[in-house]
Amino acid sequence: MDRATGLRLENISISLEGRELIAVDATIAPGEVLTVMGPSGSGKSTLIACVAGFLDPVFEASGRILSGDTELTSLPAEARHAGILFQDPLLFPHLSVLDNIAIAVPQRISGRNERRDIARAALERVDLAGFGDRDPDTLSGGQKARVALQRVTVSEPRLLLLDEPFSKLDSALRGQVREMVFDHARAARLPVILVTHDGADAEAANGRIIAVGSL
Ligand SMILES: Nc1ncnc2c1ncn2[C@@H]1O[C@H](COP(=O)(O)OP(=O)(O)OP(=O)(O)O)[C@@H](O)[C@H]1O
């Protein structure tokens, strides 16, 4: 059964101190990338936080967020099943590379060995089979990005939020990691929101682009 669902941002408006910061009304199909571009401070990361369910209470948001038929608007972050990649891969420094992935396996898979087997298979998929016992600090930027992607993948998200996850990678690596992320999103039929300043990222996303703020 295809469990893929689209994402609907219905008249989302986010204000700060009574002034509208960002407004978006969009539907994103399974496997589609919506790119959000705009100047610094225009509310792009705030939009990601709103969809993910961790909007700071200083902001006021209105509108509805729907994942298929499920309304996410007032659900807590953990019930929204959003995979998120930030500019920084944010790996836990005190956990091995393997456990950084195993920790994201859904709770219904309760056995430690089973969780670690899933993490091992995830590392193999991105050519990092021998890296499970390493400290994350010993990995290169591209390797960390691949681990971060696998951590999101094993968590079985229903939508993917990308907050400039490629911007710290050098240009050759950037293209590779980008393709890996978009290929995964297409294969898993995830709706994706990509926040970026980079025209090449937007082009590679191969989807609709919306401009926010005064470009
Ligand atoms: N917790 C907060 N309290 C008050 N203002 C905040 C808070 N978080 C963000 N802001 C403000 O909200 C606005 C939007 O910030 P946001 O990080 O969403 O912008 P952005 O478009 O993602 O910028 P950038 O491209 O630089 O990452 C900024 O003016 C920022 O200073």
From TrEMBL:
Q: Which SMART domains match?
A: AAA
Q: Which InterPro entries match?
A: AAA+_ATPase, ABC_SmlMolc_Importer, ABC_transporter-like_ATP-bd, P-loop_NTPase
Coiled-coil intervals, chain numbering: none
Recorded hits in Gene3D superfamilies, A to Z, give: P-loop containing nucleotide triphosphate hydrolases
Nucleotide-binding as a keyword of this entry, yes or no, is yes
- Which superkingdom does the taxonomy of this entry point to? Bacteria
Keyword Metal-binding present in the record's keywords: the answer is: no
Record-annotated ABC transporter domain positions: 7-215
Q: Which UniProt keywords apply?
A: ATP-binding, Nucleotide-binding, Transport
UniProt cross-references to Pfam families, sorted A to Z: ABC_tran
Any one GO molecular-function label of the UniProt entry: ATP hydrolysis activity
Alphabetized PANTHER family for the sequence:
SPERMIDINE/PUTRESCINE IMPORT ATP-BINDING PROTEIN POTA (PTHR42781), SPERMIDINE_PUTRESCINE IMPORT ATP-BINDING PROTEIN POTA (PTHR42781:SF4)
What's this protein's name?
ATP-binding cassette domain-containing protein
Q: Which organism is it from?
A: Pseudohoeflea suaedae
